[in-house]
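Researcher: Please translate sequence to structure tokens.
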Amino acid sequence: MRSIGLVGLVALAGLAGPSAGLFFPANAVMAAANLNTSNDEAKQLLTEAAATIKGAKALSFTLKAGTEGFGGLVYGGEGTVLWQRADDGKTRTLMQGQTEMPTQGKRDFHVAIGYASDAAGKTLPVVWVDKDAKTVWEGTSVPRSEASRVITNTRNMLFPEPLTEAEPFRRELAGQRFELLESKPIDGEPCDVIRVIMDEGKLERTVFIGSKDKILRRYEQVRLEGGKRMVRYWELSKVDAAPALTDASFEIATPEGFKRAKAAEPAAAPGAKPANPANPAMNNPAAPGGVAAGGLSVGSPMPAWSAKPVSEPGVPAQTVESTSLKGKVAVLGFWGPTFPASARVVAAMESLQRQYADKGVAIWGVASRTQTNGESSEEAENGVREFHKSFGLTFKSLMGDDRMLNTLNVRGFPSVAVIDAAGNVSAFLEGTITEADIKAAIDAALAK
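Model: Translation complete:
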């Protein structure tokens, strides 16, 4: 029997509310039994799908992916994908298609990501086509490299998460509750549909698994926060579970009129500064033991920085200096248009801007990693400006360049720094950041 979920459980139990005055224990017991059966069946389907992914040696498919929120598209993309797993478990990918973002419009991509060269599987050779520069670049995904950005802009943004995990559906199998929904076809293939409640009322994921071949066909994530709904999805079609792939399948030829070149390696990144051991979650919720992956030392003075604010076309903009924020609590939200998790922080900052507008709190977005595919700084700023207009954002934004990001040791997006009125770092948030996290940090800074 398909899952009834919490609402169905209440209905079957006869709990129509206090005014009903009715309670049927037998129905409640039956509903609970049905729910447990559904949980077990859903978990079994996820386990079988995970085994299929782990056992797969190669896949080819057409992919459509995107994130929708703020009443419209945050980003999206579609194209063709080749994927192969070696005997040691490492994978390689070739992707070709087009992305679309309000900040950048539509962009073509053609990227080959090779097998990792390190045991941890993090150092990846990358080849990509840059149409603006008429160049086929070759690079390595070391931190802050252009190759690393290319991976973020394509595979990390468009590739289905379960196909990148060592243990597919590990997080889903640990979910709070499961629902088996009615079967639905994807690309003509009947699919079992499983909804996983990860965090009741906040986060749920829906997985579409081919009823016959147990191959993932669609993966959705819905996040609810502050009355806002953010949907992220991936859909696979034209799936071939046994393509004949060779090394040549993952090569990118140099188009006529293009050159081939090695991408420059970045300068060594500054060392991570120590986190606040008394409150590790306020530094980096994702880091074990309170050791921040990046960020600033809580309690230390904010390093001096300057940045160009996003202004109206033709209107001279005065550079914003860090010293101008002293005397008030300030929030710097570092976000990037090609980093999916940034959408949540952008929504949170807009909500907090409205809440703290009359409390002397300066909330600034710092648009980061905005220049891709040879864009000029003016084009990147235009994209951020249009993003603000498209979604009615009222908080102000700065254009965050590498100099500013290095000065503040920002290594991932989104990140949020909260500065107290004395100009000291009150909190630095990384990893999974919620509106409640930022609000708590602001309130703590205001209380000083």
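Researcher: Any highlights?
Model: Residues 280-446 form a domain with the Glutaredoxin fold (CATH 3.40.30.10).
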